[in-house]
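hiii, so i know i said id send this last week but things got crazy w the move. better late than never?? heres the sequnce for the chain we talked about at the cafe, plus the structure i predicted for it. fair warning i was half asleep when i ran it
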Amino acid sequence: MITNNLTASLLLILASIAMNAVAGGLKSDANSQLRGNDVTNNALDNATTFLAVDDAFSFSLNKDDDTATLVWIIAAEHYLYRHAFAVSMDIYKADGSIEQQSLTTETTFSQGIKTTDDYFGPVEIYYYQATAQLPIEHISNLALLNDAPNSQPQLSIQYQGCAEAGLCYPVQKRKINWP
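okay and structure toks below
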């Protein structure tokens, strides 16, 4: 009887451990540690503090005569999704309309890490830094179409990332003036 109770107790403990591991999911292949209940417990205890999105993912446009590059600096324990990047140019017309030209397919992104995400499946992610080489000649030609008075063409930048501790930030959209 004691042996049966001990065996039953051990099986319950093992089943509980297995269920916690499955419920917590697995982190990406790039960082293959188990995501257990510690993340949930820390969040519930307010022990996990998440960065503001602009602190987690800051970006800038570096431009000279021949090149234009977007550079994201990604905080430690955070990552960006490649599939969430989008780049377009807003062209302001004299009639007040805005024409948006997609540049995403012509933009060359740095190579990230291929992994499998619990929600998106196979993805490419970036840790620490991501870059995007913009099609400068095409952008310069599009900028000439901007004919609204007192306006400047703008790049629209879209991206999304997550914190390893369990928070995925909403899709971010930023506009920057084309120099």
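btw The longest helix spans residues 2-24. thought thatd interest u
miss u guys!!
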